[in-house]
Design goal:
single chain, 214 residues, alpha/beta, seven-stranded mixed beta sheet, six-stranded mixed beta sheet, 5 helices, globular, binds zinc ion
């Protein structure tokens, strides 16, 4: 099932993803060309490259649910649900049930994403497969308790974990597959993703996705 869901995950660049799994789920759409309407949009925090009103407008329908933190919600309209780490939500659909666990996401060796700001990571369960979107985070102690089949982890350094730190995060979480993100836009390059993959070789499967072209 993990492989089946993996095929439905499209990388939109930076921290943006679209999962086409019965419901159309987006994470942090930014500079997207995809206009597939969203059922659920997860926005990890209020920074412009995660909470992009312009991009959200491209995919938001009347009944699209946006799940985010308080600071991001101030800039958004529609069905916006403010959540915080520890919250759990469930969406029943005809085709698929989506479960959500909200987790913390913050810096420990820099100040861009302070813990007190309530920025978010998400664990979304689709068809029994747990997908973890880490948001803009460092290697934080909470990761010891994160159970995920597929982990989307930042690898660029500067504002988030370095590739080396992300390797530690992957070894801590031990997902079936890890997908590097937060490179190729603003900061970081594919080199970081490749370095990350090399270091995890033989330990955790790494899938470097190509940015979706539409
Ligand atoms: Zn940020």
């Amino acid at each position: 099932m993990v492989e089946k869901i993996l095929k439905k995950i499209n990388w939109l660049g930076h921290d943006g993803f679209r999962i086409d799994a019965g419901k159309v789920i987006y994470f942090d759409p930014y500079q997207i060309s995809s206009t597939v309407p969203a059922d659920i949009i997860f926005v990890s925090h209020e920074h412009f490259d995660h909470c992009s009103v312009e991009d959200i407008k491209k995919i938001q329908k009347k009944d699209t649910v946006i799940i985010t933190n308080e600071a991001s919600a101030e800039n958004l309209g529609g069905d916006v649900r403010i959540v915080k780490p520890g919250d759990r939500l469930k969406f029943d659909g005809i085709e698929v049930e989506v479960q959500v666990e909200v987790v913390a996401s913050y810096n420990i060796n820099k100040d861009f994403h302070p813990k007190a700001s309530g920025m978010l990571g998400f664990i979304v369960t689709v068809d029994g497969v747990r997908i973890y979107h880490a948001g803009d985070t460092d290697l934080i102690p909470e990761m010891k308790n994160i159970k995920a089949d597929i982990a989307l982890l930042p690898v660029s350094g500067t504002y988030v974990m370095t590739a080396e730190e992300a390797v530690e995060a992957a070894l801590t979480i031990k997902p079936v597959v890890v997908i590097p993100m937060h490179f190729g836009c603003i900061v970081g390059s594919e080199k970081d993703a490749k370095h990350f993959a090399e270091k995890l070789s033989g330990k955790v499967k790494v899938s470097i996705l190509s940015k979706e072209q539409t």
